[in-house]
Design goal:
The complex is a heterodimer of chains A (847) and B (108). Chain A is α/β, with parallel strands linked by helices and 847 residues long. Among the domains of chain A are: 172 residues, FAD/NAD(P)-binding domain (3-Layer(bba) Sandwich), CATH 3.50.50; 115 residues, 3-Layer(bba) Sandwich (FAD/NAD(P)-binding domain); 65 residues, BFD-like [2Fe-2S]-binding domain (Arc Repressor Mutant, subunit A), CATH 1.10.10.1100; 57 residues, no CATH class; 155 residues, Sulfite Reductase Hemoprotein, domain 1, CATH 3.30.413. In chain A, 30% of the residues lie in helices and 21% in strands. Chain A is built from 27 helices and 39 strands. Chain A has a five-stranded parallel sheet with strand order 3-2-1-7-19. Chain A is globular and about 95 Å long. Chain B is mainly beta and 108 residues long. In chain B, the strands form three sheets. Chain B has a six-stranded antiparallel sheet, with no helix packed on it. A three-stranded antiparallel sheet of chain B has the order 7-8-9, with no helix packed on it. A two-stranded antiparallel ribbon of chain B has the order 5-6. Chain B has one domain: Rieske [2Fe-2S] iron-sulphur domain (Rieske Iron-sulfur Protein). In chain B, 50% of the residues are buried. Classes of the chains: A alpha/beta (847), B mainly beta (108). At the A-B interface, helix 15 and helix 17 of A face strand 1, strand 2, strand 6, strand 7 and strand 8 of B.
């Protein structure tokens, strides 16, 4: 029997889902699939589109690859739009004239952004936000713009505003309705969201209807509003909702709704036989579903009908949880309380900026809906209560009041049925997760790979983790996290052992808790733990063999075996005299000189023999070690701040110096980078640091757990409007809590992502002192600070230590293998070819 | 030709668990002293992967039953007694080393 041909028009998230479901099903062999996309690439994750501006690439966003389709025998045609359907011959026709026959046709054409009919809306810097090509256009436009406006204050509009803000533009949101996210939020929630977003520097204008876009005076365009006011901007993003992409269906006479959308029945069949419609182009029961989860459900239903099954689409839960501009927002069920006779409970807290409201049935037994802003941790439980029509607890207050642990004590996960859908995007039930755990999955990564739960919007991550942990506990599984073959402990456990047993050497610890001789993994780990608890000088004989070469020689080992020298330049502030000393040292010792990203000066190519001489000069000139070689606090970057800058709100340099001096030398599981910006223009890039501080009119805003590097992560806003004393208290606690609990080489970002309870939990520990360890953490930090010593000063004052700083132990000769060439007037290591022509080793000019 | 034993340094100049580098007959020799048994080993100092004279600055330890040093550049492990690399099919030269009256001697 020959295979049936299925043609899928559109390769967006839902079209791809249909195909993936088919090719991984038992029916795969009976069908041949071909899909068309007008876009130049296969399906990608539109839900995560804003990540593109945080550094994700098109590849990161991709949901599939061409090689996957090839492996699965899926034919695909990119950049060729289907423009006609020939129902008589059962063929589709593309823009390039290609004709392909079908037995079953699936329309997954999605939607397009609605651009309000405003005069002047078609100018070059008036853009929309839906495809990767749109994002590329936005990026290009943003580079030539200072101010950007998003038209539309809904979910997508706020995502788009985030994109503009990340691009560094002064950002405005213009909304027609009286509040933000009018569909999902009630008045109280919308108000709080607005104040949160405005605190981040985004200007919100509600009840504004744009009448025309004309040439601006100060900026590129002027938007005129119906109330006579206006706003000038360089670029405009329209994000005023979506419209179903039903052009093809309309042209070919398939039944549409009055306001568009391809009408489908419970099987996702259209009015034409053998033609289905799924996702945002489909109109079911008079509704378009603009979320991905219902689209995925439709994909399943259509496939079921084609392959002879009987699944039906009967509507979908439109609950959502997301983070908009750093603010947690969630909406469940009947968020507006439209159900007749319903009642509500409201909790509103202006101090912590939290708003929660739940809507319950007239008889107070069922949850009908909820709105959460500022703290959406309860979302998982509330959504489950609502969807599964479960009994409300005796006191529904408990669901929103902060003093009660809504997820744990009040309603255990055990009470959820196995059929409860935990991940709505990927349709994963509690039972499926438990089953995966029973089959051996023990980590979030494994659960994600096995069940796909939490791999789309991520809103269910906390709940999935809870189910995972609960099931692991049920099975009596203990999770192994050994650091290496010598110790059957995690870094945190080793750290606890050191603290409790007061062990002060690796040998003793290895005898009591380990085996073998150690290695380059456990030795530096234990060395770092010992240093962070006891802060002994790290070149003590007992510790020396534990250290990486960098720590032993207090420099960064370079590829040719030489070291780089980085003195501390707190906050990047340096006197001309000190700058001259650095220049003189570099000249005398023939060092390559480069300014670092952390506002310091790096001197490369120092040989072991020269390091003490170099540092003698530097220490005499008042420099200290910069710890650039260690897993420790590196720099506190700063902008020039209010002392010089016209826009500065507070003295960022002063605070940065104070902080750098406070935490210098602190040993940690990985390097730590800080920054302080003097205003929300954020020139110090504090939001990409482990600890970022930004001055506002109301005080300091504290961001935590960001980083640049291989996997950049935006820092999370941790606390706002702090005075300096509180700020330092929080940073003390945060740092010590991280030093104590993180794994080896785990940066704060990954640590936070693995921290159960996430940012909220961290806030509880640090701000509310929920574990009652605040005083202890501060005391530990104080101990560290009082024990600080400049390792280089200690080293050069001790002749015994200096013995190590020689390439050979039995002669003063230097390493003859080193060879340099001159490039751009400075030295660099010679490469293989250049080595063939002998290059002279440069001897320093010893004074 | 028998190689000559050459005096390098006092044994306490090599802190247990660390290494030093000596220049012996024009060769760079990395000398290691182990942490537990205080045993001496001598290998070539040249890291064939990083192409730099750095092995004496690596961290010592054990992988299974083998005593090893990890290159400080790219962390390949070399067995102290044989010079065999555990990750790649490479073996680096090893040299004779001994302690005589508190003095380290190498024949290279």
């Amino acid at each position: 029997m020959s295979k049936q041909r299925i043609v899928v028009v559109g390769n967006g998230m839902v079209g791809h889902k249909f195909i993936d479901n088919l090719v991984t099903s038992e029916h795969a062999s009976r069908y041949q699939v071909i899909t068309f996309s007008e876009e130049p690439r296969l399906a990608y994750d539109r839900v995560q589109l804003s990540k593109y501006f945080a550094g994700s690439t098109a590849e990161d966003l991709a949901l599939t690859t061409e090689s996957y389709y090839q492996d699965k025998g899926v034919n695909y045609v990119l950049s060729d739009k289907v423009v006609d359907l020939d129902f008589d011959n059962k063929e589709v026709v593309t823009a390039s004239g290609r004709r392909e026959a079908y037995d079953q046709l699936v329309l997954a054409t999605g939607s397009f952004p609605f651009v309000p009919p405003i005069a002047g809306n078609d100018q070059p810097h008036c853009l929309v936000y839906r495809t990767i090509e749109d994002l590329e256009a936005i990026t290009a436009s943003a580079q030539q713009s200072k101010v950007g406006v998003v038209v539309g204050g809904g979910l997508l509009g706020l995502e788009a505003a985030n994109a503009l803000k990340q691009a560094g533009l002064e950002t405005h949101v213009v909304e027609f309705a009286p509040r933000l996210m009018a569909v999902q939020l009630d008045e109280g929630g919308g108000k709080l969201l607005r104040s949160n977003i405005e605190a981040l520097g985004v200007r919100v204008h509600t009840q504004k209807a744009t009448t025309a876009i004309v040439a601006g005076e100060q900026y590129r365009y002027r938007m005129n509003f119906s109330d006579g006011s206006h706003l000038e901007t360089d670029m405009i993003l329209f994000s005023a909702g979506i419209r179903p992409q039903d052009e093809l269906a309309r042209k070919c006479g398939i039944d549409l709704g009055e306001r568009g959308g391809v009408v489908v029945d419970n099987h996702c069949q259209t009015s034409v036989k053998n033609v289905y419609a799924i996702g945002e182009c489909a109109l079911w029961d008079g509704r378009i579903y603009g979320l991905v989860a219902p689209g995925y459900e439709m994909a399943k239903v259509a496939l079921s009908h084609i392959t002879g099954g009987d699944q039906q689409f009967t509507g979908a839960d439109m609950s959502t949880k997301l983070k908009l501009l750093g603010v947690d927002v969630a909406s469940v069920g009947d968020a507006h309380g439209n159900t007749p006779g319903c009642k509500s409970y409201t909790y509103s807290n202006d101090v912590d900026e939290v708003y929660k409201r739940i809507i319950v049935s007239a008889d107070n037994t069922r949850l009908l809906g909820a709105v959460l802003v500022g703290d959406a941790d309860g979302y998982g439980i509330l959504q489950q209560l609502c969807v599964n029509k479960m009994d409300l607890p005796d006191d529904p207050n408990a669901l929103i009041l902060p003093s009660i642990d809504a997820s744990g004590a009040m309603m255990g996960l055990d009470s959820l049925p196995d059929t409860a859908q935990i991940c709505s995007c990927m349709d994963v039930s509690k039972g499926a997760i438990c089953c995966a755990v029973q089959n051996g999955s023990q980590t979030m990564a494994e659960i994600k790979a096995e069940t796909l739960a939490s791999t789309s919007c991520g809103g269910c991550t906390a709940l999935v983790k809870q189910v995972l942990d609960a099931e692991l506990t049920n099975l009596g599984v203990e999770v192994k996290n050994d650091i290496c073959e010598h110790f059957a402990y995690s870094r945190q456990q080793l750290s606890d052992i050191v603290r409790v047993t007061k062990v002060r050497s690796f040998e003793v610890l290895l005898d009591s808790h380990g085996k073998g001789h150690g290695c380059e993994i456990c030795k530096p780990t234990v060395g770092s733990i010992l240093a962070s608890f006891w802060n002994d000088y790290i070149l003590e004989d007992a510790h020396i063999g534990l250290q990486d070469s960098n720590d032993i020689f207090l420099g960064n080992l370079q590829k040719d075996g030489t070291y780089s020298v980085v003195p501390r330049v707190a906050a990047g502030e340096i006197t001309p005299d000190k700058l001259i000393v650095l220049g003189e040292v570099a000249k005398q010792f023939h060092l390559y000189t480069k300014v670092t990203g952390g506002q310091r000066i790096d001197l490369f190519g120092a040989q072991l023999n020269d390091l003490p001489h170099i540092w003698r000069i530097l220490v005499d000139a008042g420099f200290e070690t910069g710890h650039a070689y260690g897993k420790s606090v590196r720099t506190v970057k700063s902008c020039v701040g209010s002392t010089w800058c016209r826009y500065g709100v507070d003295d960022s340099v002063g605070l940065a110096i104070e902080i750098e001096d406070r935490y210098k030398g602190l040993r940690s599981p990985h390097k730590l980078k800080f920054a302080v910006s003097g205003c929300t223009r954020e020139c110090a890039e504090a939001q990409s640091k482990d600890v970022g501080i930004i001055a506002t009119e109301k005080g300091w805003n504290l961001y935590v757990c960001g980083n640049g590097g291989m996997r950049p992560r935006h820092a999370d806003l941790f606390a706002t409007g702090l005075d300096k004393k509180t700020l330092i208290k929080y940073v003390d606690r945060f740092l010590m809590f991280y030093v104590r609990t993180a794994d080896r080489l785990q940066r704060t970002s990954v640590w936070l992502e693995n921290l159960e309870g996430g940012l909220e939990y961290l806030r509880k520990v640090v701000i509310e002192d929920s574990l009652s360890i605040g005083v202890e953490l501060e005391a530990e930090m104080a101990h560290n600070i009082s024990n600080y010593q400049c390792e280089w000063k200690t080293t050069i004052e001790n002749p015994e230590r200096l013995k190590r700083f020689s390439h050979f132990i039995n002669t003063d000769t230097r390493d003859s293998n080193l060879a340099y060439v001159v490039e751009r007037n400075q030295i660099r290591p010679a490469n293989e070819q250049e080595r063939i022509a002998v290059v002279e080793v440069i001897e320093p000019l010893m004074a | 030709m028998t190689k000559q034993w050459q005096t390098v340094c006092k044994v306490e100049d090599v802190t247990p668990g660390t290494g030093v580098c000596a220049l012996i007959a024009g060769k760079q020799v990395a000398i290691f002293r182990t942490l537990k048994e205080k045993k001496l080993f001598a290998l070539d100092n040249f890291d064939p992967f990083g192409k730099a004279n750095v092995l004496s600055r690596g961290i010592q330890g054990s992988i299974g039953d083998d005593l090893v040093v990890a290159s400080p550049l790219y962390k390949q492990h070399f067995v102290l007694s044989t010079g065999k690399c555990l990750e790649e099919d490479v073996t680096i030269p090893v040299y004779h080393v001994r302690e005589v009256d508190g003095v380290v001697e190498v024949a290279a």
